[in-house]
Design brief:
alpha/beta; 4 domains; globular; six-stranded mixed barrel; homodimer
């Protein structure tokens, strides 16, 4: 375990949230110390120490035997100049891995444990494997509600926290799982037009056919600098921006980058993730939307209630005013699924177009109404009417136009993808169900969200009687291969349940 | 999801058991498809498809925007020539990840699930994260005994299986945790001298101060080709080789490479790991040694019994004759800890040197005796006497010399590391306990197993009365810095419990 000295070299490989070090196979140090591939090493300068996973290199164009290469992330973290002399040593695992092992063994962890874990993750001391171990061990129902609170608080402590300097900063969040559900783009202009501060930042779609940021991007620029965002929110009381540029609860982003590819999702982690992000963004009042339905994320009312209590418990501990609304998640909301089609729906509602999807309008008014009732000057039960007045009078549209202009308006074109396939009813009868998962899958295969114009446009929804051969929805795509895949998928399973008469 | 074509390039980075693909940030494909760092991609030629984790590169010396680079492992798996045209696409996670998610959710998996998981792992379809998720989900007591059997059987199916063409192929295995416990190097020559086939392959130390392979290497070459190994075993009935060259139960090696850095260890995985390796090596009769003691791997007799039953259950299902012996793990076995010192102990026992450590001799005779009783011609209870006769008569030493010669004798030098520190008794009294973990740690910090001559040499063990200031053990090291660290560690905690008179 004798330290040895090598010259630092930057290796222009982006290994995302994992530090990777590159050593040449002929490097004396590698040979003497018997470092094994995959083992972690400690890299030190006089001022700084970092941990990195080791990759062994056989090409001197990448590193020579007297150099140690660092991936972008690691290089920036070490913050030392090229060719600077560094020492390398075996690394002990991050100290908080002891707590992770206790969690694997089924023990309950304390606040201190979660703070150490999130700090070590924020400082890139965890390998992706170690993060996966933490996520699986604390997944499912392995965190009790106190632990969810501890994890939320710990994640909140690792990043910046915005302060808007106002007593009431509203936000909304839907736990997801229902396609087309673009309510934020209606709630924000309505609530901001009422005068409440609602600085909404959203994510891009990762597993869904469109996120709010992808959809807003059809109308305006969403990639805003923190300074620009602040200015805009001050002026218009609201915004619809992409949340990726601010360093809010960064550990949440890192954990999501592991959670998503693994496809694991637990209630405790979801609550901690949502609340740490919202609190970091400076929200004081938060409305959580939990859609319930057989093909939604939450399938039974009893699950929705358990989740509501967990949100309420953690929210109360962290002193945020939090309300939960349980909504109908039995079918997609609105008509369009995919960025362009969803943006079209939103604009139809704002225009008070009689053709606009009424379910999207209605749901957005309910949510906006509940948020407006956070205002102490609004009498309980009056929120909905206020929201409706704002929408009907055109004030919501005015506000939206102002926000679009400030963020930077894009040329609007709602023409969907040129390749179009009409899916027909297989029987005559009543549409009784539409499968959220299948519709999302067809829209994604058609190219959404990458191809903005791709997606699905629903013509008839549940409660409507159709005749055999009548068009129930259209698939739009921009590329021939995507189009063929999506058509094929819809032919196998069109996602509609029609009860024959 | 439209395929695009890039030129293949080999990138000489060894990413161990994980496929990594390198795309330039300016590559059209990367930009168009919005691949995100860390996401998995599918790489196809006309004949072959592989999955790989994506790293983004900003240096054209590594890959240019029209190339796709592959790490060594991935390049070999794709088996296509440089500059060949390949298609790249988003990858779905390996199908068996569904089973892993079911395991995370607490479900019981079937044999088919374990077969799919191990096949996907063997074919590098799992990222390290995904392997960690599988290990944590199936860790602790999350596998019932049927699942342990399924996992063992599945791991066995993924690799080669040796067939020695004999009805009785003996082996032994100790679950570990007791330093100095080098019984295999005595059991093999005794059992082989009796005429039983015992083709023992061993591992190198990973977390301990010496493995059997490291210790045998003091005496002879241990890195043997499969052909050489076979020839040697036919001739001498036994060998003491390193097991790393044969591709036996390769999934076990891959999982261990994830398990070790995570520091997780579960009974189910240990049983599956040991039995799949032994069955793949062609063993028909196996003796398992479970040392029990307060600082051993297994701390209580009830745990040892549970583990015994699990070994027996899985062994019976897989049709291997398996016996378990529970031994005293209250202190290190023998005197030396570290390759050179342990090899010296072994040779003293074989020489029938009166100075030889009696506990090592006695334990080895008990184990060898139990194995000799696998022989149908040996009367129950006679094994120990036969083993003792073989050792006392010098036939065990003759056999060992023959094995050493055949494997390739090394020049023997038992001189320990030149830096020597004598640790003295702090009180006068009776030595009542020696901490296995602390002694192993001191020996490792002193440099073992990398520095073969480094380690700890125990002068007095439990049951002996010592006077204050008398030497209880010596620390040997080859490097000054290691020596200082080890001395320091022993000063903090010498690992001995001495009851004052």
């Amino acid at each position: 375990m004798n330290n040895q000295t090598l010259k630092l070299r930057r290796v222009a490989i982006d290994t995302y949230h994992e530090n990777v070090a590159y050593l040449h196979r002929e490097c004396e140090l590698y040979r003497a110390e018997g470092f094994q591939a995959l083992s972690k090493i400690k890299i030190s300068t006089n001022n700084q120490k970092i941990l990195a996973v080791l990759n062994v290199v056989d090409d001197e164009a990448i590193v020579t035997p007297t150099e140690l290469g660092l991936s972008e992330q690691a290089y920036q973290q070490l913050a030392a100049p090229d060719d600077c002399l560094i020492s390398v040593d075996h690394a002990e695992p991050a100290a908080s891995m002891d707590a992770v092992r206790r969690k694997i063994n089924g023990e309950r962890l304390a606040l201190d444990d979660f703070v150490s874990i999130t700090q070590d993750i924020a400082e890139s001391r965890y390998s992706k494997m170690e993060m996966a171990a933490f996520l699986v061990a604390s997944g499912q129902n392995n965190l009790d509600r106190d632990e969810v609170y501890f994890l939320t608080k710990a994640m909140l402590q690792t990043g910046q926290r915005l302060n808007w300097g106002e007593l009431l900063v509203a936000d909304k969040h839907c736990i997801g799982g229902v396609p087309g559900n673009r309510t934020s783009m209606l709630v924000v202009p309505i609530v901001a037009a009422h005068g409440m501060l609602i600085p909404k930042t959203s994510s891009r779609a990762i597993t869904s056919p469109a996120g709010t940021a992808d959809t807003m991007e059809i109308l305006a620029e969403v990639n805003l600098s923190p300074a620009k965002l602040h200015e805009l929110v001050r002026k218009h009381r609201g915004c619809l921006a992409w949340g990726g540029t601010a360093r809010l609860a960064p550990v949440d982003d890192i954990l999501i980058s592991v959670e998503r590819p693994l496809g694991i999702d637990s209630q405790g982690q979801m609550v901690a993730s949502i609340l740490s992000k919202k609190l970091a963004a400076g929200s004081t009042h938060l409305l959580i939307d939990i859609p319930v339905g057989p093909t939604a994320k939450v399938r039974h009312m009893r699950q929705a209630l358990a989740l509501r209590k967990l949100f309420e418990f953690v929210g109360d501990q962290l002193n945020i005013h939090l309300e939960v609304i349980i909504t109908n998640g039995k079918q997609p909301i609105g008509r369009g699924i995919g960025p362009t089609l969803e943006a079209r729906d939103v604009m139809q509602v704002l225009e008070n177009n009689p053709e606009s999807p009424q379910d999207l309008r209605q749901k957005s008014l309910i949510l906006a109404g509940r948020i407006i009732e956070f205002d102490p000057d609004v009498r309980g039960g009056q929120g909905f009417a206020i929201a409706r007045d704002i929408l009907d009078s055109g004030r919501a549209m005015e506000k939206m136009q102002a926000i679009i202009k400030s963020q930077g308006a894009h040329t609007i074109d709602f023409t969907p993808g040129e390749h179009c396939h009409e899916v027909k009813a297989k029987y005559s009868g009543l549409i009784t169900a539409i499968d959220n998962l299948q519709m999302a899958k067809i829209a994604r295969i058609a190219g959404a969200p990458m191809d903005k114009k791709a997606g699905v446009d629903l013509i008839h929804k549940t409660g409507v009687s159709v005749k055999k051969g009548e068009t129930i929805y259209r698939i739009h795509a921009e590329f021939v291969s995507d189009f063929a895949f999506a058509k094929n998928l819809a032919t196998q399973n069109d996602g509609y349940t029609i009860e024959k008469k």
